[in-house]
Amino acid sequence: EKELKIRCRIDGVLREIMKLPKSTEAPLVSRIKIMSTLKIDEHRIPQDGQFSITVKDKIIDLRIAISPVVWGEQVVIRLLDKSGTSLQLEEMGYHGRALRTIRNGLKRPNGMILTSGPTGSGKSTSLYALIQEIKSDEINIVTLEDPVEYKMNGINQIQVNADVGLTFATGLRSILRQDPDVVMVGEIRDKETATLAVQAALTGHLVFSTLHTNSAAGILPRLLDMGIEPFLIASTVHTVIGQRLVRRLVPGGEAYTSNVAETQAIKDTLGMLLPASEADMKNASLDMGYETLPLGTQNAYTLMKGKEASTSPDGYKGRMGLYEVFEIDEAIQKLILARSTSAEIQHAAQANGMVTMQQDGYLKALAGHTSLAEVNRVASGDSA
Prior knowledge:
Blueprint: E1 3-10, E2 13-21, H1 25-35, E3 47-55, E4 58-69, E5 72-80, H2 89-92, H3 96-106, E6 111-116, H4 123-134, E7 141-145, E8 156-159, H5 168-175, E9 182-185, H6 191-202, E10 206-211, H7 219-225, H8 230-236, E11 237-249, E12 254-257, H9 260-270, H10 278-288, E13 302-305, E14 316-327, H11 330-337, H12 342-351, H13 357-366, H14 372-378
Parallel strand pairs: 6-10, 6-11, 7-8, 7-9, 9-10
Antiparallel strand pairs: 1-2, 3-4, 4-5, 11-14, 12-13
Helix pairs in contact: 5-6, 8-11, 11-12
């Protein structure tokens, strides 16, 4: 009402950057509308636009969303700059069983690898990392995205443009006539796109895509809800990924010993994943993808917490993923055919060795990559 507030979402957390006089709102919003080729005299309906800026010889795309609110207009600017993002699976936080399952899936010549999570959980980055892992001159990779967030050499990337009729569905039909080996669809939003993606997988293509679900197991019932037949899902989808992002601790944080509640939470969550004896330690650490893991029988554990600095007010800088990955084996195929719930599929996946997002987070906390509090904030409880 009385001032203009500028906030930035840094590592997933909104922070106030500055306040400006209310009188600056109208000219500032008008300038953004002009740069985005939007109507400057339209204040009644939401508008979406885009423009690019050059910073240090680097072109950065900005996506603009303007909405009318009670005290004026809200402007949200999304920066599309992935140049500083690592696309190495290990550096993104994939370890152990999850990493092995993904790489096994990438060796298959056809079928579907699907990733899930809420908006801003790193799904698109995971798809780019999958492409980076298999990219070569010997295979034709075509992507269909809205928007193209990361420009990759050697990849044919198509930008969705609904204004001219280029939707995910129409674009996917076109892609299948371009002799692709691998197809990446930015998001499966409707039955038509889902049907075409399944058809692509059935006709010898490897398909990557994303859905909005709370867990990896939730992907399969969501496809059923979209009207895809169970036998088609069971015969095409072979690897599913669920993910969240947690803030990464700045190196040099402060170590402390877990209290009784934290110790019990670690034991309850990780259970048999931690080695039971010194003799098991090497094999368990290799299985989980860490140099060393503590014993599951310890009375307390060493954890880390952030050390505040001018560049990292909370002791965090950057983010990493928490993942749950499983392969669609025969037991899960039977559950799909029976139209089972995500909870039933989750239970079967865990029985087959899947590490849940919360378990992955607790392992990363024990390794000192993030804090237990951050993991509990992002991935507490059963994700199914």
